[in-house]
Design goal:
The complex is a heterodimer of chains A (about 300) and B (about 350). Chain A has about 300 residues and is mainly alpha-helical. In chain A, about 70% of the residues lie in helices and about 0% in strands. Chain A is built from eleven helices and no strands. Helices cover about 35% and strands about 20% of the residues of chain B. In chain B, strand 6 (about 175-180), helix 6 (about 185-195) and strand 7 (about 215-220) form a beta-alpha-beta unit. Chain A: Belongs to the binding-protein-dependent transport system permease family. CysTW subfamily.
């Protein structure tokens, strides 16, 4: 560390030597140290992720089969067999409906905040409220929908669950989409304006495509968060044992609620079903991610 | 520009495909109710929604599963939300009937004369323990109260020795496990101690009580069972079904007649026979008389409307409850619930007939 420290420049070489060998031992040492530390940090971060995935896949794959995906949930916990079809249908429908409500609303809100409202008092108020809403616990949102919707229509339905999840997704979509729109360089907007495009046209054809990749990831985080919510589903949608594809009539259920319900039972059959449901949920969220990535890459402006 | 139009079409296509996918788990949602008061259950059709107590959930689900075989056109859904939520939702008209371990109070939001109690099953609450070297334990109510108040600190205490003549008890410290969540099981257990131990029990009764700081809390029956299973010297109260599933050993409890009785379904049914039944069919089997009755028994009820707006709905409720009280009672023992004694069952069936539609 002390001896081999040649000068960093050599006379007559036509400029500084930038090869690694030219670095001082001390700098090479700290470089190695930092690289090792970063790798260690990556490994540490991956360990819990890998363990969770491993555990869920190992325990979940035991019950995974076509019939698990298509059969009704057995009424009795201790009975083996049966499936999670009602919960899968419920999760797809409820989360899908929630996304259908929250994502357009959230993206439009973000467009208003970044392109029109900017720093006006109304925009600042909306931003503040969105930030506050992000921190609202999901169970509070469940109770809110229970009081304002379930008691109003006199029925626990899948749609009530979708409403609660949409309320949870909305602030996340607004804030993440706004951040993405803010990253679009002003030069793009100015160039579009200079070519004679109106503001709406600029927003629609220049700003949105430039930010679509980020907006999709942001919305997706919101969908993933919503798909894993348990408390509001348990409170506002009730439970079913056979698939109910009607969101507006009758009880419904979702995978997280079934995981919660089955995992707390002492019976092995129920616990196995909970692991299977967990694996199914992870695969569904992964599927959402892949679809969204495909859309984003198809839609985005290619830079290179 | 061309590319942009194309990609928008792709986007729409994907969206449509996604919607079609989510929609294809369809069923022909048979909500049309046209029940008739016919001879068997097969002629019934429609949908019943219920929520409430989680303690009898396993039993109700078993009955619902069996009922499907009898009445193929009826869908019964029972959501184990806890007694409090069940009563609230029943009062709000969200469910057709509710299961509850506790009686209806004024604060539950159910109008006083609008409902009927139907007793369904009962189950013993065990005092489960895990003490190495001890496989037989007898406890009197006073000793039990002192243990759960942590007045008694070790298993070789004189009070426990007095209940267990001739048993070798180790010097292990006692770890008390209780429910951390609000629970009907806690309510029944503490009510029992209040009734049986008298002045020796000082913590009162309720869905939660102020346990001493040195005790351990567990979530649900399964949580308490886990603590007992993993801790040498632990003792706690767990319902029989979960205690058996976790393979715990239980103590025999001294009943009102001075006999030490182990928790069993026979002892529980005997306790129900010894209990005084009120005119509205609410009853309290805790600390019941009778030489063979197990004293810590939790009753559970279904509450139904005295009059349903829809006659078909009333028929459905009657049909399901009759099935539960007749054929359904035979399923109880398999899953460690105690069926009603004949006398109470007759009264319950008469109560079901009072439902108007």
């Amino acid at each position: 560390m002390t001896v081999t420290a040649p000068p960093t420049t050599r006379a007559g070489a036509g400029g500084p030597d930038l090869t690694r060998a030219a670095l001082s031992g001390r700098r090479r040492f700290s470089n190695h140290l930092a690289t090792t530390a970063i790798w260690a940090a990556v490994l540490l971060a991956v360990i819990p992720l890998a363990l969770v995935t491993y555990e869920v896949v190992i325990k979940g794959s035991g019950v995974m089969s076509l019939s698990f995906l298509t059969e009704d949930i057995p009424n009795s916990y201790r009975r083996e067999g049966g499936g999670m079809a009602p919960a899968i249908v419920g999760t797809l429908l409820i989360t899908g409906m929630a996304a259908l409500m929250a994502i357009p609303l959230g993206v439009f809100g973000a467009i208003y905040l970044n392109e029109y409202g900017k720093q006006s008092p109304l925009a600042r108020l909306i931003r503040l409220m969105a930030d506050v809403m992000t921190g609202v616990p999901s169970i509070v949102m469940g109770v809110f929908i229970y009081i304002s919707w379930v008691l109003l229509v006199g029925q626990q339905t899948g749609f009530a669950g979708a409403l609660a999840l949409a309320c949870l997704m909305l602030p996340v979509v607004i804030r993440s989409s706004e951040e993405m729109l803010r990253l679009v360089p002003d030069e793009l907007r100015q160039a579009s304006m200079a070519l004679g495009a109106r503001k709406w046209k600029t927003t629609l054809t220049v700003v949105l495509p430039a930010a679509i990749s980020g907006i999709t990831s942001g919305s997706l985080l919101a969908v993933a968060r919503a798909a894993g919510e348990t408390a509001p589903i348990v409170i506002v949608t009730g439970i079913v044992f056979a698939p109910n594809s009607n969101l507006f009539d009758g009880f419904n259920t979702a995978l997280p609620a079934q995981i919660f319900r089955n995992a707390s039972q002492p019976f092995e059959a129920a616990q196995d079903r909970a692991w299977g449901a967990a694996l199914t949920l992870i695969v569904i969220v992964l599927g959402f991610t892949i679809i969204a990535r495909l859309i984003a890459s198809r839609f985005a402006i290619k830079e290179r | 520009m061309n590319r942009n139009v194309l990609s928008r079409r792709v986007l729409v296509g994907v969206a449509v495909a996604a919607l079609a996918l989510t929609g294809c788990g369809s069923n022909n949602n048979s909500t049309e109710s046209g029940g008739s008061g016919g001879d068997g259950y097969a002629s019934l059709s429609g949908e019943l929604k219920a929520s409430g107590a989680s303690f009898p959930d396993a039993y109700y689900q078993e009955v619902i599963e069996a009922f499907k075989g009898e009445a193929a056109n009826v869908t019964v859904t029972y959501n184990a939300t806890g007694s409090g939520t069940g009563k609230k939702q029943f009062g709000e008209g969200l469910v057709d009937f509710a299961g509850t371990d506790s009686l209806v109070k004024d604060t539950d939001g159910v109008a006083a004369d609008s409902f009927l109690y139907v007793p369904t099953v009962a189950a013993p609450i065990t005092v489960s323990y895990n003490v190495q070297g001890v496989d037989k334990l007898q406890l009197s109510p006073e000793t039990l109260a002192k243990i759960f108040q942590t007045d008694i600190k070790t298993w070789d205490d004189a009070a426990i020795k007095a209940d267990n003549p001739g048993v070798e008890l180790p010097n292990t410290p006692i770890v008390v496990a209780h429910r951390s969540d609000g629970s009907g099981t806690t309510n029944n257990f503490t009510k029992y101690l209040t009734a049986a131990a008298g002045d020796a029990w000082k913590l009162g009764s309720g869905d939660t009580v102020a346990w001493p700081a040195s005790t351990q809390g567990g979530e649900k029956n399964t949580g308490v069972a886990q603590i007992i299973k993993q801790t040498n010297g632990a003792v706690g109260y767990v319902d029989l079904s979960d205690a058996k599933a976790t393979q715990l050993s239980f103590a025999a409890i001294k009943n009102k007649d001075g006999q030490f009785v182990e928790p069993s379904l026979e002892g529980t049914t005997a306790g129900l026979e010894g209990a005084a039944v009120e005119a509205d069919l609410s009853y309290n089997p805790l600390n019941a008389a009778g030489a063979s009755s197990y004293p810590i028994t939790a009753p559970t009820f279904i509450i139904v409307k005295a009059k349903y707006d829809d006659a078909a709905k009333a028929e459905l409720v009657k049909g399901f409850l009759k099935y539960l009280l007749n054929d359904g009672q035979n399923l109880a023992k398999e899953i460690d619930f105690a069926p009603l004694p004949a006398s109470l069952k007759e009264k319950a069936l008469a109560q079901v007939d009072k439902i108007q539609g």
